[in-house]
Each structure stands twice: as C-alpha cells, then as structure tokens.
Specification:
The structure is a single chain. The protein has 440 residues and is of the alpha+beta class. 50% of the residues lie in helices and 11% in strands. It contains 18 helices and eight strands. Strands 4-5-6-8-7 form a five-stranded antiparallel β-sheet, with helices on both faces. Strand 7 and strand 8 (417-423) form a beta hairpin. Helix 2 packs across helix 6. The longest helix is centred in the middle third of the chain and has 26 residues, at 202-227. It is globular and about 70 Å long. The chain starts with 24 loop residues before the first helix and ends in a 5-residue tail after the last helix.
Amino acid sequence: MPPLADPMTFDRARRRPQRIGPLVVGVVLLLTACGSNGPTAGPSASQALVTAAPPTASPAPTAVVDPATLYATIEAQVVAIRGLQPKAKVDPKVLDDAGIKKLIADSFAKDNPPAIVAANERIMKALGLLPADASLKDLYLTLLGSQVAGLYNPDDKTLYVVSRSGGIGPSEKTTFAHEFTHALQDQNFDLGSLHLDQVGQGDRSFARLALVEGDATLSMSYWQIQNLSQAELGQLLASAASDPSTKVLLEMPPILREALLFPYIQGLTFVQGLQAGGWQGVNAAFSKPPASSEQVLHPEKYAAGEMPIAVTLPKDLAARLGSGWSVALEDTFGEFQLGVWLRGNTSIGAAAANDAAAGWGGDRIALVDGPGGTWSVVLRTAWDSAADATAFEAAATTLVDALAAPASLLPGAGGTERWVVIGSDDATLARVAGVLGLAR
C-alpha cells in the first residue's frame, strides 16, 4: 500500500513515510495514563502541549525478560481487550534513535517527489502557515525524528518499536500495544481499503487516519490501565514531562504540530464515542469510515451521515489563464486545517476561530503556476449557511490582509461561498480572480 497520510497538509506530501503511526507517545501516554476521557473537539491541540513529548529513553526494565515472551504476552492482552483475532504472526523490529531517523528519512525520499513537497511548501507559505525561509522537508524530518515511538508498515506487515534506551521499559511496551493494534486492524479490516493515500483527498485521509489512530490509542490506553503498575505509569509521566523533545514539538509551526497530533487526540475522542456501546461500533466504522475532519470534530455529523459539500475548481482553469499555466497541486483543506489557519488570527481567540471553522461545508485548494515565475493559490470554500460564510470571512480577513503576497477574500455564488485568491503580484491576482469571475 502506498504511503499513508500524516503530518503534512496536502496531497502526497502529507502522507506519512509509508507507515501507520508514528505514535506520538508523550501526548498519548499523558492522556491515557492520567485516566483522561480525551480532549473535547475543537480547541487548539497546542493547548495540551506543555508536557506533550515522547520520552527520549524509558527507565530500565524492572526485570530481565525474554523479549519474544514479553511481546507475545502483550499481544494476547491486546487481543483480549480489542476483541480482534490475529490472522498472521507479527515480529517486531526494535530500532534505536539513529535507526528510526534513517528509516524516516529513507521513506520520505522514496515516497515524496521533490516537486510535490515543493508545491506543498509554497501553498503553506502563501497562506502564512510556514515562515518564508522554512524548509518543509527539514521541518518534517526533524518533527518525526524527535517524536516517533513506533511504526506499523501495512506494505510488508512490519512493526517497529523505538527503544532509545536499548531496553524494553513501559514506553516500549505501551508502543508495542499501540502498534500491534494496527496490525490487528490491518489483518481484520485491510487498512489499504481505506485509501489513505488517494491523491486529492487529503482531508478525507486525515479523517480516516483519525479512526485508525484513535482506535489504537484507545486500545493502548485500556492496555496501560490493566497491565502497567503504578510505578511504571509514574515513570511514563515523569519521562514524558521532562523530555527535551517537547521543545522541538512546541517550536514547530502550528500546522505541522497540530496535524501530527490530530489523529491521536481528536481521533481518541471520536473513537471513544463509537466505542460507548462496545467495540462493534468501532469495527463498523472501518466499513463506513469518516468522510471529513468535520465528522471527526463533530461526531454527531458522522452519526447523521452529513457529508461534505462537493466543491470543485474549474477543470480548465489553467487553459483559461492562458499559455504557460498549469495546476501544480489540488486538494481539500478541510475544517481542521482551516481551524488551524484561523487560529493564527490571535485577535479573535481560539474559541472564535474554531466557531468560524465549524460552519465548514466543503472546499478545494489549488496551486497554479504561470509563465515567468508567476503563480497563484486559489481556495474555494462552501459553508453550511450564509451566516457561516460571513463568520469565516470575518475571521479570515485579517489573515488575508496580512499575507506577504497580494491576496483577496471574495464572495462566491449564493451567499454561502467565499474564495481566497493569492497571487505572486497584483496583476496575477487580478488575472486569476477575473478568470474565475470574481469581482475585486
């Protein structure tokens, strides 16, 4: 199966490096070891980041035990909790810090064409989501290299556990419980059938990944409660709270930091709702996975079957613009990522930004390139009501006005649409807006 979606924003370059995971173990461990019911949907993930980082190394194991025996014991415990039967043997591979960083870098180079990474970077910078001098690739590798605790690869059915201490402590055992849940998911539901890598369906992939990770996180939390001692839970909390990789996470641009956390934090809340009546509700969701981050943020919309509004951009946009124009990248941004963007307007506060994003109905975003280095980013959004569109406009106008490149926020059809058009220069902005039939 091709690479799976993870902490990037659009299309192929937002896929994880050919893995389910990575487990953001510090955040997850702190939520679950404290017996949390999970965060509520909506607030910025950064609000929970004071101690949100994985341990650099677990404390030494309290007893010497054969790894194969230990992992087999955890497998049986997870099977009893999750209620899914294994259909094939899974042999974990333990990597040290250098090994996981090499795996991440090699996978990134293999699975992310430079042109796609560059297009993602340019869109993020155009929207003000990345600093002008930032390298998306470098940030991505730094982020994952510091935060990854475990990986599961559906392609070759390989499970990786990261041990930065060389031992098997509570962190490594917890990570294995999480990743083994992914193996059970794959064997019972075929993770490839979720099409997490489908080009142009970034927001949908994000939502489905939240189901996958939320399930594994909940299963892992039950395993922790039932099988870790109070001393081991204390070790997890102490090491996660003091780990220096917290600083790496906090210094990341919000779009990368929060995208990394979303499948675990919001996914956990989403799956807890599904699991309220038993695991059969979670199992059923793999046959009817969420269609948007909106459904994850607002589970009642998933339950009601409220689908995203189908939003399209003109298929002949490049041709309309003239000779030398081409579409470099097109995808869906989604409510979650729009919320991250709107929270950049600090004058209104996170709650108001979340409320403004909550009326999202659908969107499409594209990067188009023209002759002589000209370019434009076009974002077409559809809202549940005219009032919702007005609320988005009020929240986004300050952001649009502050962008480095010329930009306009323009009304669309029927009062429920808003467009954000950004151009490399004023003439390009006017040309693209005119071709789209948008008055400036």
